[in-house]
Amino acid sequence: MDKADLAFTPALEQAQLIRKREISPLELVEIYLERIQRLNPQLGSYFTVTADLAINDAKAKTEMLTTASELPPFFGVPTSIKDLYSVASIPCTLGSPALLNNIFDYDDGVVTKMKQAGFIILGKTATSELGSTPYTEPTGFPPARNPWNPEYTPGGSSGGAASAVAAGLCAIAQGSDGGGSIRGPAACCGMVGIKPSRGRVSSAPAGDRLSGLSTNGPIARTVADAAALLDVMSGYITGDPYWLPEPEPSFLADTKEKPGNLRIAYSITVPPLGDADATCQQGVLETVKLLTELGYSLEEKCPDFSGLVEPFQVVWQAGIGAAGIPRQALQPLNQWLFNRIGSGGEYLQAVFQMQVAARQIVAFFDTVDILVLPVYLHPAIRVGEWANLSPEETFQNIIKWVAPCPPFNATGQPAIALPMGFDSNGLPMSVQLVGKPAGEATLIRLAAQLEAIKPGISKRPQFAS
Q1: How many other C-beta atoms lie within 10 A of the C-beta of residue 356?
Q2: What's 11's domain CATH number?
Q3: Among residues 80, 157, 203, 214, which one is catalytic?
Q4: 158 classed as catalytic
Q5: Cα–Cα distance for residue pair 395/384, rounded to 1 Å
């Protein structure tokens, strides 16, 4: 297997190659660091590359191979951490030049779990400023670009993470999703992205700033890789405001199980914001066709999200103020959102309204096990496409683009983005599957079943080959 083949090998397979001593952690890290040095200047996938730390960790793990009898599941596999999350001694910029020297002396809980699982961290991936936009073009940093066509965005706010996996700049990546920030980039880059249920993954040691909207999750090349990383991430840490029991036996094991009889709904319309365009409809309709061939009966219907749009915006924009960055240091859109932040009472009223609307949406799933939706209402935009719009125009464009995603941050339900081929411009198509609360197991089983008959993207971006 040559170096490029290894770079695009799924993470679980890399872990097996390491266990069999067919490749060492050091060799694998060196492959990725060479690719990052060559390709990252054009792609902007990483803000920070921690080459020395990664090499030292890889050397230590390579030496351990000669003596260790048991190894953690991802021993020696290279990964990345989104630059909204703390890795001790490494800058955590949140996508803001004002925080270039923002260095913590601790790891976020999800980082600790990934280190315990044996991962080697290559660096911090690009994010939009404060994770607030679905494209990754923060002021003061190079824009993140889509390896399938660098003129287009890889999405956001986990745009750097999805771009890195798609370009073979890491094996698998940590992302986070507060309104589609895992699912959107996974869709733009042709990857698998899971937004877990609320309480599945701890936010320790920090608190919850967005009333349960945001969660960590995996971005990967395969359903099995994503499920296995979700196993690693899952679990309660003391003091969490929300929690779920750990998966039993595991989400990875679920990829080998049949889903059983399922009640499946689908829609190409997201009330009240309208229809997906023809390309995004195609991903849904292709999935409906595959599910029908598998023997499922589907019904075309969707919850009405009308009661959620306004309160979600109020809660979301309050997160800009909660970051603690002075307004004048923010880019124009975030300054505009900062100025819209109301009183504490208005925030709590919006949380109440959002929870009422969320109950109505979850009630839809009393008679439905899976809902099939587009991820976004139109494909990836070009880098800089909205740069000359007013903040208000940009915000309205964002709302219309990402409409299928935020409702399930509000409800706390799990959702997965799956690749569904390519559109006429050569960009990936995708589909979103949404499950019942705490229903990741069913989602993962169905996603694995779909992947078995329509495998994920096997070819590589020409740019990154």
Answers
A1: 12
A2: 3.90.1300.10
A3: 157
A4: no
A5: 14
CA distance 435 to 365: 8
Measured between alpha carbons, how far is 43 from 89 in angstroms, rounded to an integer?
Answer: 25
pTM of the shown model: 0.98
DSSP notation for 215-270: EEEEEESSHHHHHHHHHHHBB--TT-SS--PPPSS-HHHHTTS---S--EEE-SEE
Q: Is 181 a catalytic residue?
A: yes
Give the residue numbers spanning the domain of 195: 3-464
Confidence of residue 298 (pLDDT cuts 50, 70, 90): very high
pLDDT confidence bin for 452, thresholds 50/70/90: very high
- Core vs surface per residue 410-433: b (16+ CB within 10 A) or e: bbbbbbbbbbbeebeeebbbbbbb
Are the C-beta atoms of residues 122 and 33 closer than 8 Å to each other?
yes
Q: What is the pLDDT of residues 315-331, one digit of tens each?
A: 999 999 988 899 999 99
Active site residue 297: no
Band of residue 451 on the pLDDT scale cut at 50, 70, 90: very high
The Cα–Cα gap between 413 and 362 comes to: 8
Question: What percent of the chain stands above pLDDT 70?
Answer: 100
Structural domain total, the chain: 1
Distance between CA atoms of residues 224 and 450, nearest Å:
12
Residue type, 401: W
The burial of 125, by beta-carbon neighbours within 10 Å (0-12 exposed, 13-18 middle, 19 or more buried), is given as: buried
**Start-to-end CA span in the chain (Å):** 14
Contacts of 25 (CB under 8 A, 6+ apart): 18, 57, 58, 61, 62, 65, 75, 76, 77, 120
Which segments of 256-380 are extended strands (E)? 264-266, 269-270, 274-275, 298-300, 370-373
3-state secondary structure of 321: helix
Q: Which of 181, 214, 250, 267 is catalytic?
A: 181
Choose, from 61, 82, 113, 124, the residue flagged as catalytic: 82
84-105 pLDDT per residue, tens: 999 999 999 999 999 999 999 9
